[in-house]
Fold this protein.
Amino acid sequence: MFDLGITFTVYSGENSIDRTLPFDVIPRVIPAEDWHRIDTGVRQRVAAINLFLHDIYHDQKILKDGVVPSELVLGNANYRSEMQGFSPQKGTYVHICGTDIVRDDRGLFRVLEDNARTPSGVSYVIENRHLMMRSFPDLAEGIPIADVDDYGRQLAKALAEVAPEGVSDPAIALMSPGVFNSAYFEHIFLAREMGVPLVEGRDLVVERDRVYMRTIKGLEPVHVIYRRIDDEFLDPTAFLKHSALGVPGLFDAYRKGNVTLANAVGTGVADDKAVYAYIPRIIRYYLAEDPILDNVPTHICREPEGLAFTLEHLAELVVKPVGESGGYGVIIGPHASKRVLADLRRKLKSDPDNFISQPIVNLSVCPTLTRTGVEPRHVDLRPFAVTGESTWVLPGGLTRVALRRGSLIVNSSQGGGSKDTWVLV
Amino acid sequence: MSNTLLARFAQNVFWLGRYIERVDNLARILDINETYARESHGSPDWRRVLEIYGDTERFDASRVQTGEHDVLNFYVLDTKNFGSLVSSVNMARENARSIRHLISTEMWTQLNTFHTRVLQLTQRDIWPTHISRLCKEMKEACQTFEGVAEGTFFRGPAWHFYSMGKYIERADQTTRVLYLGCDLLEEDRDAVNTVRWNALLRSVAAYHAFRWVRPRGHRRGDIINFLLHDEGFPRSVKLCVGSVEIHIENLVLRRGQPRVPAVENACTHLNFVLETGLGHEISAPALRSFLDQLEIGLIRVSDEIAAAYFRMG
């Protein structure tokens, strides 16, 4: 069991379309005071993001005040003009948020990315804990570890809070693209944890702007949908015409306020790389508070001082084009050739608006079991925040670990694994 | 919410019940045939199994060889045969997969392990020296699943559909096995060919139960009546149909579903056939036509359940 190379099949004996994630048996421990900072910081961030989304889909004060450049928001691929003027229940757009946090070489927690669309991974948090407790039942004895089992109940409660007006006992459903989705296990897991039906588009129908599911009794109403399907696929009459996953008329029913979608449509504009750079200012603008969790220091090249700094330290920085996603066009200064840097310098000067730059963050490490014993490996952390009327953060989170020595890449597709995360109370 | 069940899931869980029961029945038939149902030269009569499942034509069309190994291959390993053991376990798992959030984790885990085991089966496992062990293992896996379901499956609408599928499949199996009785009736008009009647009883796990009811020997027709009508024998057609009715009734009374007259009528009709369709003097032709009616009645119940509950409309 202790040999590395034992890949824990968390969801035992699945065939190839289900995922397995390597699991490291040494838990990551987060002391109470550190967790307090993360918990309050994440809640602050989610509050600001919800206010920001409400503003840009209504009066756009923040754009008019010049705090965030209009074109960055209105020209964003994830901005949905269809949402203009629509107010979701309780002003909550982002009901489920996964905030990727790293710790730098000074010990400061910093947010790397906000995942405000359909963040996944929470099932690993809970399954990892169960796996840990099954394998080492006496390990946690006498240690006050926060419980992670409450997620499903908290989520169901939050979703009930944002049900359409006048619905006292809302019917909640989890909407999945289906068994071939890579996160399908998590959909099953969440439906079970919440005690709600796991539906697909074909199980739902819209009649007179109300949403129903096809049950053994006939059509029964659905009031809240936790959808694990992207905006574009929700409704072929509103977005992508050829989406077979969606439900015709769903968006109209949503706009009329007859069904709540979680997360709301159009939240992608808030977790965009370009907008990310402005989140500290967004927090100050709406909440008049300093951010509890900082960003990774980000230089916005559309601003003269940001551009000047970036050009001066080009060889030490990571430069990212803001329009792209998935790491396209990212140039890592120390690894780039002189020619690439010269080329980048030219691009920065001619089109500074399109770039941001960041220092390379030396992620913190955790003791991790390897072939040659316990060694340090780099980690990050994704806590999950659930928002109905208020925000609750699951005390724990997905700790991803780069299993390769020296690697900073924690993604499961590139040799990353996960750890149980113990928040001390 | 616990009484809400998507139509699609009702269908999945109904077929989960059917497939598990089917594998259990098939494994039993293959085992009994290997062990007890010998023809006059003492080798197992594999045509019998083909006849039970009405597969003679399909089997003959699909191959040149018709030896024991070929029949076993057809019924155990052949994935092109949708009725084979491997195909049925695949289907059981596929159905379970869609309703994984509705069944218990223990049910899923057990079935998943069973499925993995079935995928590993090879030609060697169906050798004459191995087949009995394999059948026992398959039967036990189904019975384990059934036991896990009994102990862990939430008694909501899904449970009722699971049970309906199971009992309809079981009634169907007992009916099919009874067709063998037609041949036995024809072959020995007066005597009771004990060995072959006993094999028939064993094909539906009825041997000891029947001994219990008729300890001092029996008359012509007793075995047939027992398999059809006995209220204590868990695989009698009567008990199975009665169980289907109980689950339909519970859907209405305890899970708040509306009454569906078409389903209830189909059950009433089936019961009527069962009670009145076979006279006192049991002859081979009379039994055959009665069993035909029974089969039609069972199909009608199944179809009405599908029409009432599985429609996506």
